[in-house]
Each structure stands twice: as structure tokens, then as C-alpha cells.
Write a structure and sequence with these properties.
The protein is α/β, with parallel strands linked by helices. The chain is 28% helix and 28% strand. Strands 3, 4, 5, 6, 7, 14 and 15 form a 7-stranded mixed β-sheet that branches. The chain is globular, with a radius of gyration of 20 Å.
Length: 327
């Protein structure tokens, strides 16, 4: 028997409960993992609260991340005892995810636990940190260096934003952090932000072209805020977009792109190729300040997930939430 968070539908109503299951209830996949830690992300909160159409099959175990130890494997690359990490690939959406003590997944979805990381540390970084690093890698591929000028991070108090601020600061970039919570200024300054910008200043429709401010951007929110960021980019500036917390619309004109050569680069962490995943985790080991890790982490038990999820909808969660599935 193992404990699992299950989302199901009964009489067309979504029901979420923490329950015990037989291992035989697990989907038939190539690798069975004993989960040590998972995470609670914005996407998980949407699924658990029913606030967004995340879950595609019922019943389903949510959780887009997991780290643990292989118990059984028919996949050549992994054997019993190997420590592994999983981010994305539709787990927690179309496939059973990590908010359980056991998981059954396909071997190609897994990567080895990166050297130097514990399972807990890997989940403290999780999909959010891995996504942040994918954004940084895209900025670098487009030639954005610390000497290019300042980089702005939206949703900076959240999981992706917090890690992006920390990584960029460590790499030598001048980082501006956008947040709707002025009280988070000390937290963001401690992560390395040199400037704090009130989100409200970017929420209203702005000019098609504004004063040039940013060489690069990591946007986690979308909608009008992303449109205004695009309008403030320097010539040949690069915006990486990876989230839609403020909305999936983009009320922008073509002017930043055809008059300033601005590039808008989408970043997908769910189905990113394995080579990109391995590169991102290798760079995280090099470029993420482990000493800052604990400052962005809140740890909860599996039994606390249902009560914690609504806080994401309220916008009151700071940094990363990791889940010890054993409690």
C-alpha cells in the first residue's frame, strides 16, 4: 500500500482526497519509482483546486515533479537503486504524477539525479528552477550577456522568478524584479535583485514603444505585463516567455519586433528534449547558489497539499514549495 493524492470526478464534481492504494493501481509504465520528494507548483494548484483545465484523465495523481529511487525497471538506462528526477512530460496532467509515495513512469521521462544534489535539493529547484535555467540558456543563445544591459524578471516572487533572479544575479547580470508584493523587497534583494518594480506599473495598457530599458527578460506571467515588457526592450533585446499567471492573451503590437529587432522566445519545460534537460541540470549545479536555496523553500507534507494549493490562487506563495511525501 502507498499513499497518494487522487483527483477524481463524482457526479460531474471534482473530488480531491489523500488515500491509500495498492501498487497494482499504478499505471503500467517501464519504471517504478519510490518517491522521496515532490513539489507543489502553480499548475498543480490549478489542478487540485479545479481552477484550470489541467487534468485530462480521471482519476489522476497530480504533481509535475518527482525525485526518488528506482524500485523496478524494464528500461535499459535505469536499474533498481538508481536515483532519478522527473519534470514535465505531462505527469500530473495526462499521466499520474509525483504527489504520491510511489510512481510509475516511462524511462525516457527520467534523468539521473544530478551529481551534488540530494532528492530534496533537486525538488527545491524542481520544474520552476529547471524552467528558469532554460530561459537563461535561451538568453545566452541569443547573445545576451551581463554587458548587454539589465534583465527584468516578472513574477519574481514565484518559483520560476525567484530562481531566475538568483541565477542571473550569480552570473553577473543586473536584475530588476517585478512583483505585486512590495513586502517581498528584502527577499528579492537577498536573491540578487538590484531594482524592485511594482507590478501595478505594468498592468495597464502602455505605449506600443516605451523607453528602452531591458536587454533581456524572463516573463512568467504573460498578458498585458508581457506586452509592456516587450515595448520596453532595448534594440535586439530578447524576451523569454514561460508562463501565463496573468493570462494567456498578448495585447502587443508588432512595433518592438520590427523597429527594435526584439525577439520573443517561448520556453517550454514540459516536453523539452532530453539534451536540453541534461544541459539545464548541469548548469543548475554550476550556476545556482545552493546557499540561497533554503531561503526560497517552504517544505510541507503530502497531508498538507490540499490546504496549501488555494494559496497559489491567492498569490500568497513565495518561492518554492516542496513536498515530503512520507508525511
Amino acid at each position: 500500500m502507498f499513499r497518494a493524492l487522487i483527483i477524481d470526478k463524482k457526479d460531474d464534481e471534482q473530488v480531491v482526497e489523500l488515500t491509500e492504494l495498492e501498487e497494482s493501481a499504478l499505471p503500467e509504465k517501464s519504471v517504478t519509482v519510490k518517491v522521496s520528494y515532490s513539489t507543489l507548483n502553480y499548475k498543480d494548484a490549478l489542478a487540485i483546486t479545479g481552477s484550470g483545465p489541467i487534468v485530462r484523465n480521471f482519476p489522476l495523481v497530480p504533481g509535475v515533479d518527482l525525485a526518488g529511487t528506482v524500485v523496478r525497471s524494464t528500461y535499459d538506462e535505469f536499474k533498481a537503486g538508481d536515483e532519478v528526477v522527473l519534470n514535465g512530460w505531462g505527469v500530473g496532467e495526462s499521466h499520474w504524477g509525483g504527489l504520491a509515495e510511489m510512481a510509475s513512469v516511462e524511462g525516457e521521462w527520467l534523468v539521473p539525479l544530478p551529481p551534488g544534489f540530494t532528492a530534496r535539493q533537486a525538488m527545491a529547484i524542481g520544474t520552476a528552477g529547471y524552467t528558469a535555467m532554460l530561459c537563461v540558456l535561451q538568453l545566452e543563445r541569443h547573445g545576451i550577456q551581463p554587458s548587454s544591459g539589465p534583465v527584468v524578471v516578472t513574477g519574481a516572487s514565484g518559483g520560476v522568478g525567484s530562481v531566475a533572479v538568483s541565477i542571473l544575479s550569480k552570473l553577473g547580470y543586473e536584475v530588476a524584479a517585478v512583483t505585486g508584493r512590495p513586502s517581498e523587497e528584502p527577499y528579492l534583494k537577498a536573491l540578487g535583485a538590484s531594482e524592485i518594480i511594482d507590478r501595478a506599473s505594468l498592468e495597464e495598457k502602455g505605449r506600443p514603444l516605451a523607453k528602452e530599458r531591458w536587454a533581456g527578460a524572463v516573463d512568467t506571467v504573460g498578458s498585458q505585463i508581457l506586452a509592456n515588457i516587450c515595448a520596453e526592450m532595448k534594440y535586439n533585446g530578447v524576451v523569454t516567455a514561460c508562463g501565463l499567471a496573468a493570462g494567456f492573451d498578448l495585447p502587443v503590437t508588432v512595433m518592438p519586433f520590427i523597429l527594435r529587432g526584439v525577439a520573443l522566445q517561448g520556453v517550454d519545460s514540459v516536453y523539452a528534449p532530453r539534451e536540453q534537460r541534461l544541459q539545464a541540470w548541469t548548469r543548475l549545479a554550476q550556476d545556482f547558489d545552493a546557499q540561497k536555496l533554503e531561503s526560497i523553500v517552504t517544505e510541507i507534507g503530502l497531508s498538507e497539499v490540499i490546504d496549501t494549493a488555494p494559496k497559489f490562487m491567492e498569490g500568497s506563495v513565495r518561492g518554492r514549495v516542496i513536498v515530503d511525501v512520507s508525511r
